[in-house]
Amino acid sequence: MSDKYLRTDKQNLLNALGTELCWGWSPAVDVLQLLTDYQAQRQEVEQTASSVPQGAWSRRSSWSDRRHLNILLCGSCDVRHILLTLSRVVRHVREDADNKTSCRGAAAAAGPAASVSPVAPLLRFFIYEPNLRVHCRHLFFLHLLCDMITLRELEDRIELFLDLFGNVRLRDASASCLKATTHRVLKLLERHEGPLRSVIHPSRSFDNMKSKERDFIEEQLRHWVRDQSRADDVAQQWDQRVRHDLAERYDSRVNIVDWDFNFAVLDYTHTIKFPEYREWRLTGLAFDYCRINPRKGFQYEHAQVNKSLCHFDRKGRGQYVGDIKNGPFFSFGVDTESPHLVKRQVDGQMIYGNGMIAMHNTRAWIYELLTGKVWPFADHKFAWDDEKHYNPLPADAPQDTAQFNPTLPACEMHFVGLDFERFLAHCGQGSAGADAGSSSTTDAATAAVSPPLDDFERMLQEVTLKSTSTTAPEASSATTFGTRRGERTLFDVAFVGCTSTQLMTPTFFEHMSPDGLVIVETIKFVSDACDETKNQFVQKALQMAAAAAAPTEIGGSSSDDEPIPRRGCGAWQHNVRLTASLHKRQPPLKDVAGRPTEAQQRSKDRMAMPFQLVFSQGP
């Protein structure tokens, strides 16, 4: 029996969304590609605007010239941004070296050109989560995807990853993998042994945590490998929460799920198939390889409990307190760079589902991370038809294990405790200054020289103007914040999940580099939120960024040990072009003959809603 109507709206929402979100609600972001696009945008503005001094951004225009890149992840809930960024390091360094070589072609005629040696900067990821237990999954998946893996088992590892990432119940092979990989994580934390010891250091990686917070993480990991720690009643817990959510409509739950899919999911993303969504809502199974890429003679019975999704008390009793409504579909399966995976049928429906796209995306990222070569996307061929279609490696893939020695790019992981203000204070230690200069005229100049906008960018700009025109920050706020000076850590890129937007305070923006970017996740894919609520969330994020005036003078260290050159800055503003660049891999909409109906136009507007926003201090 349900007590839904005796609870508040907040309690009912928490019952659907859970108190521990273990996956994100937006696609992965290639941080280096975003910085490259921002660099090109600034150079274009500098060449066009007469009021912008030439060379204003030249000293710090290229991320590849820096020794470090500080990347802050607040509430990302999984490792998708880390995985995608690390897999693209070799590609971006190679492209940057080619661009520098071509730019020096003219100088080579006058004298010998300097050699360009592509060297990637050290990527330092600072990971904050509102729930400490999510750090356990971060540690686990970093080991699963980056440790002890070869190309021969690439497809098997991807299958294990999807099973462990988004399914409440596991196959026997996945449960064994969970236990073995967790043992390696504990070995790294306790004895500093393992291939990832240069990436995750037991002491340096947890400097921003209290001792009891790290002890809690290790305690949760030990429950994953301890046979006495049980969570056998997860299926009953799931069914009980579904009963509470649906109340008297529980007997018609299949029809209710069908309604939610067509009116709360399908208009926002076209990559999720109804059987995938129905299976998730009813049983907690999101990635079933019986639908993704099954093989003849293999059993896919999910009988074990996914302990990585359970919260264990001190007595070893596990409980699932995560999401039961939206699902883990949006981190890896709503966009792709492959045109083969976003084809439509004659009736306009997508040919492939979310699980298929997630499998291909993850496989391409891991392959590029291991080999440094771009994965050649092609039409999908089912392993059920032919066994050779399982784990199809490219022709130029390294075959001999002697010549194949995969190494991770230079990176470090730093895990942050629950006290985020304490972390910012630790990053901002140094002497304080009292003077604040005047705001620069760069922002006004760049607004007049921007190239024409497409339809999606025009819609984003209208949303920005609507928000900033209603609640513009006071003029005095430009000198209120950002006067702290001295040596401190500044972040080049920050990602803020929709569960952590309360952290976007003026102090948060003070710790961003003058050339930094802030990416904010929206609630586009939250099915319990109506369109009005989703638009209000976007406007609130725009207002919070506009109200946090950027520092007018900064002296400190961002990614390098050299002081940052001083320059005037205005308030943080919505960068429409960078936001549009994050949405360019969305599947194209189906063509509509004639004038669209009201329902077709509403569906188009919902699909065009941004799932991420990018803020910058420049153009």
Distance between the termini: 56 Å
Q: Count of helices?
A: 21
Q: Provide the β-strand percentage band.
A: 5-15%
Mean pLDDT: 83
Structural class: alpha/beta
Q: Can you list the strand order of the major beta sheet?
A: 7-2-1-8-9-11-10
Q: Regions with pLDDT < 50 over 5+ consecutive residues?
A: 110-116, 430-450, 467-486, 550-557, 561-569
Q: Fraction of residues in helices?
A: 25-40%
In short:
The chain has 21 helices and 11 strands.
Essential attributes:
619 residues; alpha/beta; seven-stranded mixed sheet; two-stranded antiparallel sheet; 40% helix; 9% strand
Explained architecture:
There is one protein chain. Helices cover 40% and strands 9% of the residues. It has helices at residues 9-17, 31-48, 80-87, 89-103, 105-110, 133-146, 154-166, 172-191, 211-225, 234-246, 253-265, 274-283, 289-292, 354-371, 420-427, 442-448, 455-470, 506-510, 531-547, 576-582, 598-607, and strands spanning 68-74, 122-128, 169-170, 304-305, 310-312, 318-320, 411-416, 491-496, 512-521, 573-574, 612-616. The radius of gyration is 25 Å and the shape is globular. The N and C termini lie far apart (56 Å).
